[in-house]
Predict the 3D structure of the following.
Amino acid sequence: MLAAQMHNNSPIKYISTRGNIGVPALDFEAAVLAGLAPDGGLYVPEELPHFSPAQLASWVGLPYDELAFNIIQPLSGGAIADADLRKILAETYAGFSHPAIAPLKQLENNLWLLELFHGPTLAFKDFALQFLGRLMDFFLTRSGKKLVVLGATSGDTGSAAIAGCRGRASMDIVILFPHGRVSEVQRRQMSTITDKNVHCLAIEGNFDDCQNIVKTLFVDSELQASHPLAAVNSINWARILAQVVYYFYAALAVGAPARKVAFSVPTGNFGDVYAGHLARRMGLPIENLMVATNRNDILARCIASGEYNMQNVEPSYSPSMDIQISSNFERLLFELYGNNSAMVQTKMLELKAKNSFSLESAQHAALRAGFSAQAVDDNATLQCIGEIYQKTGELLDPHSAIAVYAAQKMNLPQAVPVIALATAHPAKFPDAVLKASGVTPTLPKHLQDLFSLEERITKMPADAGAVKAFVNGLPK
């Protein structure tokens, strides 16, 4: 396991989950700017801070950005001065439309909804990507460097990344998305941004094709030499770190650390629920983490059986979760196998060769001890949207509905509040919401001209060479 506590004041280092010889440990700044390790692994900290119940109790009621500073600062390893980090965090959340940043709403006696869609692009990705764009710009401006931010999106990451990086002279941003497999609102939130440093590529394939192209280019030394790349997907450690914060914020609001809490998390790439796992390891008293998936249920099947077995990606009403390669699961594998990078390498090679791998019995038992899982099909998703609207007047988007449906299936003591993560505004998925509830959700005022703006998209085959040529054509 990763060490549970930092034992000294020396700068924390970040290591690759695949740990090949010649891949050095990095400091926080280098890990943020690299994103993916050159051996194809993901960076994780060698150690984690651990916060005592007394520390947690002293944080109850803190403004969101102050709480974020307390959690992020120990893991920044001195790479950024406290005053600069505080300024970046204050600016990150200043553009959110709700004063609480991440407000909680009570749906049932012991079920709460954590609204994570009050950022500029109406999705939970804004929490991390408004931070990451500013953080990367700070590091690049300080060093006088420029790079290409490269990412794949199944819907929300792209627009949130673009919103965080647009107009910054220190970077170009290139976002790949599966052509015809994101909602119109999601597509337009990317394609209508006219800043010269923003490039949207519609890939003729699915999200996994997009993600594979990105991973291929990150280990392309020739491209990295001509156009250094940085990651904005949740393979970037700073993305995960920023998401850890709202678990603490929500839990403290409903009674932690004096009592345990549980979370139901809609997830496809395992990044959001992995952030909750880290919060638990850092001292937050989390009784249970529910992995809520849609019909593309590879994570639920793996937790149940110990077999990580890829199948075809099926389109659903919750497209951001239409995924079969859950990249962040690799970080958990590294931990489950006691930081054994050779074992992670073996599992990843098996996955590439056979589209599957198996967990050993001890690792499967540890996985089941840490997580529960529920797959929710399209019919159940629509049913949940309709029922919650009828009972409470609250409109859920399809991803949030999956979290609520799964939360209702959790069998926990009454004293444990359950918090379902609402990861997107219902107006991002108006067709599904209308079908389920009879109500068409409206976009917030700042996005109401979205459908009248001109789009700018480059369509491309699912081919790493074609995307490489596009990136090589960008100014250095």
About this structure: Residues 125-143 form the longest helix (19 residues).
